[in-house]
Amino acid sequence: QVQLVESGGGLVQPGGSLRLSCAASESIFSMYQMEWYRQAPGDQREWVARIRYGDSTAYADSVKGRFAISRDNAKNVVYLQMNSLKPDDTAVYYCKARRTSRGTDYWGQGTQVTVSS
Fold first, then answer.
1. 95, 36 in Cβ contact below 8 A?
2. Least C-beta-crowded within 10 Å: which of 12, 56, 89, 106?
3. Could you tell me if 101 and 90 are in contact, meaning their C-beta atoms sit under 8 angstroms apart?
4. Dihedral over alpha carbons 5, 7, 10, 15 (to 10 degrees)
5. What pLDDT tens digit does each residue of the chain (117 aa) get?
């Protein structure tokens, strides 16, 4: 079982930046895919970004050009750099990992991001 721990959330003003971290309990070097999702109160969980083995990335249209996903294989950490934050970005952000293309999904506990003046 992969343990994932998110951190880096908090309160930020509109236009500000935050960097979220997702620390994994095992090597992420050969992990098939790691993703970020978010869930605002009353809404369904929404996919945000993913990074695959080989470092290909993809983003939801709502965050494209503002967010960037990356990883540090030596530290077993995946990051989500969030710039030009908007109130609509307010949500609990979750990390998800999958070892293989058809493998089990593992989730972290989430970290709260609040964008407000």
1. yes
2. 56
3. no
4. -120
5. 899 999 999 999 999 999 999 999 998 888 899 999 999 999 999 999 999 988 899 999 999 999 999 999 999 999 999 999 999 999 999 999 999 888 899 999 999 999 999
CA-to-CA separations, 85 to 49, 51, 78, 104, in angstroms, rounded: 15, 21, 19, 31
Q: Is 41 helix (H, G, I), strand (E, B) or coil?
A: coil
CA distances from 54 to 17, 76, 97 (A): 27, 15, 15
Q: What is the DSSP letter of 74?
A: T
Distance CA 94, CA 38 (A): 6
Tokens coding 63: 């965050």
